[in-house]
Amino acid sequence: MSLYDVWSRGSRIFLSESKLSIDYVPRRLPHREDHLLKLAAMFKPMIREPGAMSQKVILLGPVGTGKTVVAKFFGSHVEAYSRREGLGIRYVHVNCHKDRTLFLIMKRVSEQLKLRIPRRGFSSRELMNIVWSTLESRNEYLLLTIDEADYLMNTSGSDAVYDLTRMSDEYTSSELRFNFIFVLRDASRLALLEECVRSSLLHNIIRFNPYTSKEIYDILAARVYEEEAMNPEAVGDEVLTLIGDLVGFDRGGRGDARQALEILWRAGKYAEAEGAARVMPEHVRRAYSDIYPQFPKEALNNLKRHELLVLLAIVRTLRSTGAAEAGLGEVEREYRAVCDEFGERPRGHTKVWEYVQVLKSMGIITARISGPGRRGKTTLVSIPSVPLDALERELLTKIGS
Ligand code: ADP
Ligand code: MG
After folding, report:
1. pLDDT, tens digit (0-9, with 9 covering 90-100), for 254-307
2. Which of 119, 164, 181, 255 could form a disulfide with 211 if both were Cys (CB 3.0 to 4.6 A apart)?
3. Is 263 in the pocket of ligand 1 (CB under 6 A)?
4. 390 burial type by CB count under 10 A (0-12 exposed, 13-18 middle, 19+ buried)
5. Which residue owns the Cα nearest ligand 1 atom 18?
6. Which CATH number fits domain 211-291: 2.50.20.10, 1.10.8.60, 1.10.10.60, 3.40.50.300?
């Protein structure tokens, strides 16, 4: 294949890969509408009467819960509204993972505002003064997001936050030009703040909870079907549900949307590399286990022979159907064939059901009772996190030996 072929041929799987990247800000943020409305309410004074007060808000929550994307989304809407109404509000987003000191933060702000900073050494204080007086001369206001503020507080203690938020007080004669959104992961950092800063921040906290499997599903579905990051024909509901189940907080996952997007992207890459027309559950399992290697080899050592045989039957049923889940009935049929193959007498239904519970309790498989849709109620089992190929090979060496 020539390089030209590689470039000229469109992907069957991806339509716009960059829309799955971490920095992309989508047009809609499912399950964060309330957070955005709260932000809008808290910053209403800044919009209605810029300069009358200096607002400070904290976005608090674990990684991957949408804090950064909510801040950026909000910032771009503030700027758009400000342009339309001629308010002169500028939004700047700084990440303390990169810029860990007050000085580096103010330098980044200056760059964003296109200030010309003379080269000679400045203190962070002086830089802040320059930014402030520039805003004053332009009659502009700043909404500054200090993202990953945990880092800033680690390196500079609470002084940096104090300096940032209290500086307005030194300009009592003039309008207040600075507004802040602090993004924090760890609530215990708040205790470090000086009392006067803390009290002005504490009632302006917006909390971000880990996403549930349903919420993860909705976020991925919006990215695929609304934003058209991927070919909708190539990504079925089943695949998105599977990722939701892997990542969802209610299913024991981290509830991290970044992780979910990464699994989806990687699964798409595997499908593409194979020349497959669709992303399949097996691509998702491989993607997940590549990112989070957790092949339960030790777990297999503790399984009894018939538990291994049932697990093998589940693997083979899932492989032959290519589906994310298998009904217990199908698994039992396969189990009898597997027993035949290894010269074992198959155990009855109740025993098989017990083996399934063991496998489930060890976290190797998931099992749930089917909802409406299938005939009657049946137990559906799934192996979300381990590639079936590798698992089958491992099982065969164990059972055969
Ligand atoms: P955090 O800053 O809390 O660690 P991010 O805002 O970086 O999380 O979100 C992680 C990834 O998931 C980003 O790519 C982001 O665009 C995406 N994301 C998070 N929440 C949502 C949501 N509600 N809707 C759409 N995409 C989201
Ligand atoms: Mg973030």
Report:
1. 999 999 999 999 999 999 999 999 999 999 999 998 887 666 677 788 899 999
2. 255
3. no
4. middle
5. 66
6. 1.10.8.60
